[in-house]
TrEMBL record:
One Pfam family, short name: p450
Any one Gene Ontology molecular-function term assigned to this protein's record: heme binding
Cofactor: heme
Similarity section: Belongs to the cytochrome P450 family.
Binding annotation for heme: C474
Tree of life domain: Eukaryota
One GO biological process term: vitamin D metabolic process
Keywords: Heme, Iron, Metal-binding, Monooxygenase, Oxidoreductase
Protein name in UniProt: CYP27A1 protein
Length: 525
């Protein structure tokens, strides 16, 4: 019996979050749904058939899967994004590709992307991560809100989002997460002041992952883990096991999900065994920490407390989800933010390092809104317009997630072609981000394009959706954004961020990750 199975039997099947999607909507001025439906029906009669959608032909049985192997022209790890851009140049803003048994339609027109989201119905359907689904079924665990579809998804989603999406709820944790970002600054300062450091922090990304884990722990566990220290973490410590487990999970997840054949579904392949071990590891550690939190809460029951922030207890108090489902959400929250938020912070710092004028403009905004030594709350964060523009522009150039995927429960006409219900539709936002018709000078890092009062503003809706859109928008979005904003504020407030050596590139681990971390930190006067 695995460690995880023993945890589950102790009444703690615990797990998922931030690939799900929420109810926040873009403010647009589009026609009513009924009008759109009638218009779609009228167009469908004149639309061209699905089989006429252009695209690469591929080989029998495997389709174009060979192109994504290490020997193909678009290796998954290093050039998956390149495939969407190159194929769009060749075939246009809609093309069809067959990957093994799966037919996939790729679109890169914002108006067609809007049409997909407007037609996703009451129960928006995403492609489940099959490896995660199989793992949880084997372990007899709840699937989690990101894997579920249909009525079960809606039931869980509508309950847990009450604790995840309210600005007031998220803002209550701003000062606690700010303390974590201050500690990251202290670590950077201490490490860069060492002789011969040259302002560099060896293995900086590991400290960023510690910061991400610590930041979400103050929310889910209502406590600090103490992992933001100058010393290396003990190999068997809870924090290091979580970080290592999540990293190994993503490394093997991309191999399983994009393997084409999916041999792991039938036999225990070497990659599956590594994936299973990683899942066991971080699930077990997260479950252990959550049990300790519950035990502490039970011991303190009835004891007065100054804090009204107890995320886990609020989550568990919901009577429309099971204990196991609520714990699944808490476990995944602990893990999901390590790579996703950590990598996003790295991309933002790199863009600022390579664009010192933007960094200086951000510094001036920070000092105007939050003078040195002043605390940060959600009200002050709401005044940071240039900061938000920096983050959006970084998402455009260095997306942590480069696309959104949906399956519709009805036929839809996209770019003049009928796309049948249940077809996998990939919305290639990363392609749109590279096109001058949507972003003048697309290769230039220009946060000003996102400021409403700038003459160059006016980015079209649905061109950039880093957290998705509609009912399945990333359920952890508000926590992730708050954590990211706090980290950027404190680092830029205290350091000039520079870069040394070859530019950062992205590698694909289902989400995008940096391939290097050669930052140079210079203390501000």
């Amino acid at each position: 019996m695995s460690l995880l199975q023993r945890v589950v039997r102790q009444r703690g099947s615990l797990f998922r979050v931030c690939g799900a999607r929420s109810l926040a909507a873009l403010k647009t001025t589009y026609r009513p749904q009924s009008t759109r439906a009638e218009e779609s029906a009228a167009h469908e009669a004149a639309a061209r058939p699905f089989d006429e959608i252009p695209g690469p032909k591929g080989l029998p049985l495997i389709g174009t899967a060979w192109d994504y192997t290490p020997f193909g022209q678009f290796p998954l790890k290093t050039n998956l994004r390149g495939s969407f851009r190159e194929r769009t140049k060749t075939y246009g803003s809609i093309y069809r590709e067959k990957l093994g048994p799966m037919d996939m339609v790729v679109i890169s027109d914002p108006k067609e992307i809007e049409k997909v989201f407007r037609n996703e119905g009451r129960y928006p359907e995403r492609l489940p991560l099959m490896s995660v689904k199989i793992y949880r079924e084997l372990k007899k665990l709840p699937l989690g809100v990101a894997i579920l579809n249909g009525e079960e998804w809606q039931r869980v989603r509508s309950s847990v989002q009450k604790d995840m999406m309210r600005p007031k709820t998220v803002g209550a944790y701003a000062s606690l997460q700010d303390d974590v970002s201050r500690d990251l600054v202290d670590v950077i300062r201490a490490l860069t002041e060492k002789e011969e450091s040259g302002g560099q922090v060896h293995n900086f990304i590991n400290y960023v992952y510690r910061w991400a884990l610590e930041s979400i722990s103050v929310v889910v566990l209502d406590q600090r883990l103490g992992c933001l220290t100058l010393d290396d973490l003990e190999p068997g410590s809870d924090a290091q096991l979580m970080i290592d487990g999540v990293n190994n999970f993503f490394r093997n997840l991309v191999k399983l999900e994009l393997s084409g054949v999916g041999l792991y579904k039938y036999i225990s392949t070497p990659t599956w065994r590594k994936f299973e071990k990683a899942m066991d590891q971080w699930h077990f550690v997260a479950a252990k920490m959550l049990r300790e939190k519950l035990a502490k809460s039970a011991a303190e029951e009835g004891t007065p407390t100054e804090s009204d922030t107890d995320f886990l207890q609020s989550l568990l108090s919901r009577n429309d989800v099971t204990f196991e489902e609520a714990m699944m959400m808490a476990v995944t929250l602990l893990s999901a933010g390590i790579d996703t938020t950590g990598n996003t912070l790295m991309f933002n710092l790199f863009c600022l390092a390579k664009n010192p004028e933007a960094q200086e403009k951000l510094y001036q905004e920070i000092m105007e809104v939050i003078p040195a030594g002043q605390p940060i709350d959600d009200k002050k964060l709401n005044k940071m317009h240039y900061l938000r523009a920096v983050v959006k522009e970084t998402f455009r150039l260095f997306p942590t997630a480069a696309s959104n995927v949906r399956k519709l429960d009805r036929d839809v006409v996209l770019s003049g072609y009928v796309v049948p219900a249940k077809t996998t539709i990939l919305m290639a936002h990363d392609v749109i981000s590279s096109l001058p018709e949507y972003y003048p000078e697309p290769e230039v890092f220009k946060p000003e394009r996102w400021l409403r009062d700038d003459e160059s503003s006016g980015v079209q809706p649905f061109t950039l959706l880093p957290f998705g859109y509609g009912p399945r928008m990333c359920i952890g979005r508000r926590f992730a954004e708050q954590e990211l904003h706090l980290g950027l504020i404190r680092i830029v407030q205290n350091f000039h961020v520079g870069w040394s050596g070859e530019d950062m590139k992205q590698v694909n681990r289902m989400i995008q990750a940096p391939d290097r971390d050669n930052f140079v930190f210079r203390k501000r006067a």
